[in-house]
RNA sequence: GGGAAGGUACCUAAGCGGCCAACAGGGUUGGAUUGUAAAUCCAAUGGCACUGCCUUCAGAGGUUCGAAUCCUCUCCUUCCCA
């Protein structure tokens, strides 16, 4: 399959498709790689599979000899992309951003070769930190209020009588400036990024550069069918353990499977169709294996699958239960649960107990005043809270 | 600068002097069922040394036996006019 065909598979919109075809031809003839920009703001400590879709497309370009320009938005992260948001997020401190930026590189490195020569990693503070107020004014002069207010998010917020802050309108301009600074030929992003990508294209044109081609990738929805986001808890982190990742994928709704197959795995369309024709559970197992294989290993995937069957289909205990040590003594059950982290508060622990969700050594305990006797050093009990959480508690 | 409407738990949103830890829906959590899918049903949903106690209804004061509810000031948001 040619590069352009593969690109089409992973994209939902290509602005300047004809231009892209010509660029690819020219690049091949002149042996000059295209500069393909992808920017990500280190606003959270975790990168998830949703982010992985454009990254995978970026890798595709890389495999074909082009140069990924990865922008870690340590400048833009301070502001935060208002896309899809109807509230302002609390501003991040430079320290938090730096912390996140480091882990981002590790996580993205699982999918993309970040070695020098085959990839360019930039931080946009390189230019934003040097701009003074008048530079900012100049940047603001690059667009108009009407143009920026066209954005869907802003429209919706204004209709709902919610605030739209001035600095939020700067975000697309900042992202556009990135494109100018790195002289991007192509920029990738999720399909909610179209507006921002367009801005880069326009700004480059104003600066006398060749406008970038904008490619957006379809959105990978979270396991519950909503937009994948950490705050919904429906995301699959690239850093997640193999068991966790496998379990998350298995909890995916059936409707989402087809998209997940095509966006989160490397499988061919034929292989995917074959899977989808079978039992949904088997298909999902195959999907989960594929995902875990890419981010961990085939062995880890096989192990995670077995573990999953053992735990949830056969309802056996997990093969390794975290062990917690406590001082010898008798404990009231709710406070012990809080102490070992199976509940956030004792009230929460009580609720679980009353709801029949707590077992000690396989026996359901419904009495909130139950005392766990761990008087002798070395004594231990197996505690289960809910379906997934286990702890082996031993007395010191 | 002038005028109007608002700020209630994770979100939406009732309550407008005692029956309020606060209606309802969403979400979340636990349970049943199941393919840890969907759908459905039940329950819980501020904290704690839990038949009680403590801290909440933007913030600070005040009125009252008693305030989320009334008054004063402050902070924040939106809308209209300039």
> Number of folding domains?
3
Q: What is the CATH homology-level superfamily of the largest domain?
A: HUPs
Highest-level CATH class of the largest domain: Alpha Beta
Going by helix content, strand content and strand pairing, the class is alpha/beta
- Let me know the average pLDDT: 91
Strand content of the residues, in percent? 5-15%
Describe the protein's architecture and organization.
- With 396 residues, the chain is an alpha/beta fold.
- The radius of gyration is 25 Å and the shape is globular.
- A hairpin with a 2-residue loop joins strand 9 (358-360) and strand 10 (363-364).
- The protein has helices at residues 3-10, 17-30, 49-63, 76-79, 94-108, 125-128, 133-140, 145-149, 152-159, 166-182, 194-206, 242-250, 257-264, 269-277, 280-295, 298-313, 333-339, 346-354, and strands at residues 13-15, 35-40, 67-72, 120-123, 186-190, 213-217, 323-326, 329-332, 358-360, 363-364, 371-374, 380-385, 389-395.
- It folds into three domains: 3-217, HUPs (Rossmann fold, 3-Layer(aba) Sandwich), CATH 3.40.50; 242-313, Tyrosyl-Transfer RNA Synthetase (Orthogonal Bundle), CATH 1.10.240; 323-395, RNA-binding S4 domain (Structural Genomics Hypothetical 15.5 Kd Protein In mrcA-pckA Intergenic Region, Chain A, Roll), CATH 3.10.290.
- It binds one RNA strand of 82 nucleotides through helix 15, helix 16 and helix 18.
